[in-house]
Amino acid sequence: MRFLHTSDWHLGRTLHGVDLLDAQRAVLAQITGLVTDPVDGRTVDAVLISGDIYDRAVPPVEAVALFADTLKDLTAHTSVIITAGNHDSAIRLGFGSELFTGRLHIRTSLATVGTPVMIGNTAIYPLPYLDPDVARAGLRTGEQLLARSHQAVMTAAMDRVRADLATRPSGTRSIAMAHAFVVGGAASESERPIVVGGVDHVSARTFDGVDYAALGHLHGGQQPNSRSATVLRYSGSPLRYSFSERGHSKSVTLVDVPAAGSVRLNQQDLVQPREMAEIAGSLDELLTADSLAAHVDDWVRVTVTDRSRPDQMFDRIKSRFPHVLQVFHLPAGATEVGRSASGPAAERSPRTLAADFVRHVTGLQADGAELAAFEQAYREALADVGRL
Q1: Which range scores top for mean pLDDT: 18-22, 364-368, 373-377?
Q2: What is the Cα 113 distance to its own chain's centre?
Q3: d(CA 153, CA 159)
Q4: How far is residue 183's CA from residue 112's CA, in Å, rounded to a whole number?
């Protein structure tokens, strides 16, 4: 059997204020092309989408329409199995899923954990994003609540998977689809943190017992370091969603699962609609250097190194680089702390933004207690959004 593993589409996302819908449409068309024009002539038996279909719980209408169009194209040729990620609203994404028959399977409910979708002789176990605050009650087997951690709820979910798999005929192959941060994975700046009670990681050994774990959440395609017999892989996002991903080769993964023997992976690179680059220099160099001509059509982040801040800095940079997303002024020899941004907001962590705000308003450095209070409020706000 051959499966196409993808995740983290984040439909409806913007990049420093720039609408990405056309870029997303372009990469999704490439994914559809791998199904309609199979690699090596081998048919894709199912597309596995491991969470974060949308970028937020209430996606824009245009994003929903793009998702619907893509599903229509894919299901005309193969089965599609979808799970919810931490950015998705499980209720909204799963609406109507019980009415879908045939080739489309959307799993967003705890009630379906451990119940596979059978594709040939392969049992595929879709696990929606498991918020410990919700799943620790729904996945318990007795009166005792599970620990408030991703490790605890994912272990309970995989116990259900292993229990069901034990009832299947000998030789049944198996895949678990999960949206989690597995120990050994490398994060980028564009993932929303999964943090509950300070515990956000899941051990790779949690997925022992299945042949392949089709992972979502981390945006870089990778295989976490693991001693598990299970093959684990993040397909990564199909599009670059931050400058920290500018060096990523975006792709999807073709997963070949033979009747017996090892799972084989085949990475299929996706052409990016626009490249990303970081460039720096004096304003005169930036506006005239021939060496920078290759970046004129890129999404760029620019650092201007003149001793004094040039007038109309952003507009002058934009005259040469029309797709510029960020412009910073950092005089040569100055430290990063002194860098100031022009144009769309800088790409910084919530903790850094809070510290910068306190320093800007009070002139003082934020202390640990203030930052801890902010992080707690931020986590609670994210949890509320996830329940919408």
Answers
A1: 18-22
A2: 21
A3: 10
A4: 26
Q: What is the DSSP string of 75-89?
A: HTTSEEEEE--SSS-
Q: Are 308 and 321 in contact (CB under 8 A)?
A: no
Counting every residue written for the chain, the total comes to 388
β-strands 117-119, 122-126 pairing:
antiparallel
Burial class (CB in 10 A: 0-12, 13-18, 19+), 181: buried
Domain range for 165 is: 2-269
- For residue 357, give the H/E element and its range: helix 350-362
Our CA angle for 187, 238, 270, nearest 5°, is 125
- Look at strands 201-202 and 181-182 and give their pairing: parallel
Q: What are phi and psi of 114, to 5 degrees?
A: 95, -5
Q: What is the pLDDT of residues 63-112, one digit of tens each?
A: 999 999 999 999 999 999 999 999 998 888 988 777 777 899 999 999 99
Structural domains of the chain, count: 2
The CATH code of the domain that includes 48 is 3.60.21.10
Nearest to 209 by CA among 249, 160, 251, 243: 160
The Cα 79–Cα 57 span in angstroms is: 25
- SS3 state at 18: strand
